[in-house]
Structures are given as structure tokens and as C-alpha cells.
């Protein structure tokens, strides 16, 4: 009987110790979990801040690295763009020059009984282009007074004085220059063209001595007539922009806008007749 009581007591003690161990283990695990959870809760906000800062720093570094790269690429593109623009300007310049020379060549082919000397403007003989130009060719190049000067667009004027390596060219805009012209559509050859300046207009010419029954009209093309052999025949001069009737002088007059833009002249050509002892142009 006593032995049974001892066994029962031992069993109770073992079970009690085991149960106590389980309780202590459970408490320890809960405490560890709580501590771990608490530490995690405390660390998580800090981790978020650090992560955010790292992301921003990385983003900033990427931005500056990419910005530097983009800036360098932009410099290269700008350089290439400038080079392309310069090439385009050069191309346009050559294209315009070729077109001008082609026009002059067409005139030379139609008037192949003359020689032509190319020249450049080096100054004005007065206060403006209407007073005349100074060109870089003169007597040493075969130029003489009264020779005519053309551009790719048409008649420019006439040589009025020469030096050894220069000459003065008076343009159509000068009232001292008179040109015998004709109306291309009617072939009338009685007109005289001179410079014409008003308070509101410059760069124009006036055509006079047209008969009252002249059929000249706005838009007509005016050419040199060749009368007097001072100018070769059929050089383009300009276009009629208005026509008036002068009942007192019993004639018609017309305002003509020259084809040549005298403010933008570049290459000029002096027309040299075959016989230069006396300047006369064959028609």
C-alpha cells in the first residue's frame, strides 16, 4: 500500500515538473516573440528611412551621371547641327552663284560676239548705290568708258570713268543714264528709260517718249532696243508697274521696276565689244 502511494507521488511530481517545464518554455517563447516583435517594430521605420535615403541618393547619382552623359551628347549634337547649317549655307551660296552664272551664260550664248569680264563691287562712287559703283577692274583689264555692265538679272548700267585697276559704273537709277528700250510684247522701240526717284519711291525707272496709241500695259517686259548701238539689243531691263498718259506732251509714260536689285548686287560683268576703238554694240 505504501509502495503505491510512493509511485503515485513520484508520478505527480514528474508530471508537475513536466508541466512546469512546458509553462516556462511557453513563457520564454512568448517573451522572445514579443521582444523580437518589439525590436522589429522599432527597426522597421528606421529601415524605411534608410531605404528611402538610399533610393534618393541612388536616384541623384543616376541623374547626375545621366545628366553629364546627356550634356555631352547635346554638345556633340549642337556641334553637328552647326556643321550641317554651315554646309547648307555653303550649298545655298554655291547654288545661287551657279544660277546667277547660268543666267549670264545664257546671255553670253545669245550674244557670243562679245567678250565678258567679271568684276566685283569694291565701293560706292557717291553716298549710295544710286550714285554708282566702283569695281575692281579697269584699263589694265581692257575696260573703257561707255562699256555696259550686266548682272545675272539684266542691265546694271554703264562705265562712266576708268582708272588703271578700277572703274565707276553708273546704274540705271541715275538720271544721267539714258537707255533706248522697247516693249517686248509690242516691239515698240521709241522709248527712253531713265532713273526715277520720288519722295516715297526709289529704285525705279521711268520710260518716256511712248506714243499715245502705245499698247504698253502693266506687267510688260522692257528690253534694250539696241538703237544707237550704245547697248546690245534685247538685254532684260525691268517690268512695267504702271502706265500714265501725258496729254500735254502727247505721249504715254510708264514706271518700270528694274529686274536688278541694286542694293544686293554681287557679281558684275562688263560687256566688251569686238572693236573697242569706238564703243559700239552690234545688234
Q: Could you walk me through the main structural features you see in this protein, from its secondary elements to its overall organization?
A:
The protein is an alpha+beta fold. The protein has two domains: 1-110; 115-272, Rod shape-determining protein MreC, domain 1 (Thrombin, subunit H, Beta Barrel). Helices cover 39% and strands 27% of the residues. It has one helix and twelve strands, in the order αββββββββββββ. The protein has one helix spanning 2-110; strands spanning 115-124, 133-135, 148-150, 155-162, 167-171, 179-183, 191-196, 204-210, 221-224, 236-246, 251-258, 267-272. The strands form two sheets. Strands 1-2-5-4-3-12 form a six-stranded antiparallel β-barrel. The chain has a six-stranded antiparallel beta barrel with strand order 6-7-8-11-10-9. β3 and β4 form a beta hairpin. It is globular, with a radius of gyration of 49 Å. Mean pLDDT is 75; it is low at 1-5 and 34-43.
Amino acid at each position: 500500500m505504501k509502495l503505491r502511494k510512493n509511485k503515485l507521488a513520484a508520478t505527480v511530481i514528474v508530471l508537475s515538473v513536466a508541466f512546469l517545464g512546458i509553462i516556462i518554455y511557453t513563457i520564454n517563447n512568448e517573451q522572445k516573440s514579443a521582444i523580437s516583435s518589439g525590436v522589429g517594430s522599432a527597426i522597421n521605420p528606421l529601415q524605411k528611412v534608410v531605404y528611402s535615403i538610399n533610393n534618393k541618393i541612388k536616384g541623384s547619382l543616376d541623374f547626375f551621371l545621366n545628366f553629364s552623359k546627356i550634356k555631352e551628347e547635346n554638345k556633340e549634337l549642337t556641334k553637328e547641327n552647326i556643321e550641317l547649317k554651315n554646309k547648307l549655307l555653303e550649298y545655298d551660296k554655291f547654288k545661287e552663284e551657279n544660277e546667277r552664272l547660268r543666267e549670264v551664260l545664257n546671255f553670253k550664248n545669245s550674244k557670243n560676239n562679245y567678250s565678258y569680264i567679271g568684276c566685283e563691287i569694291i565701293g560706292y562712287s557717291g553716298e549710295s548705290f544710286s550714285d554708282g559703283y566702283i569695281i575692281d577692274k579697269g584699263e589694265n583689264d581692257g575696260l573703257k568708258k561707255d562699256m555696259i555692265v550686266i548682272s545675272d538679272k539684266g542691265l546694271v548700267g554703264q562705265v562712266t570713268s576708268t582708272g588703271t585697276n578700277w572703274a565707276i559704273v553708273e546704274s540705271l537709277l541715275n538720271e544721267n543714264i539714258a537707255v533706248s528700250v522697247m516693249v517686248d510684247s509690242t516691239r515698240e522701240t521709241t522709248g527712253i528709260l531713265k532713273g526715277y526717284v520720288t519722295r516715297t519711291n526709289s529704285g525705279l525707272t521711268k520710260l518716256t517718249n511712248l506714243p499715245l496709241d502705245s499698247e504698253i500695259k502693266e506687267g510688260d517686259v522692257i528690253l534694250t532696243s539696241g538703237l544707237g548701238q550704245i547697248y546690245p539689243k534685247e538685254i532684260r531691263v525691268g517690268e512695267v508697274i504702271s502706265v500714265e498718259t501725258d496729254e500735254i506732251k502727247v505721249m504715254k509714260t510708264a514706271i518700270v521696276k528694274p529686274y536688278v536689285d541694286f542694293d544686293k548686287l554681287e557679281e558684275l560683268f562688263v560687256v566688251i565689244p569686238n572693236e573697242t576703238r569706238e564703243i559700239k554694240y552690234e545688234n
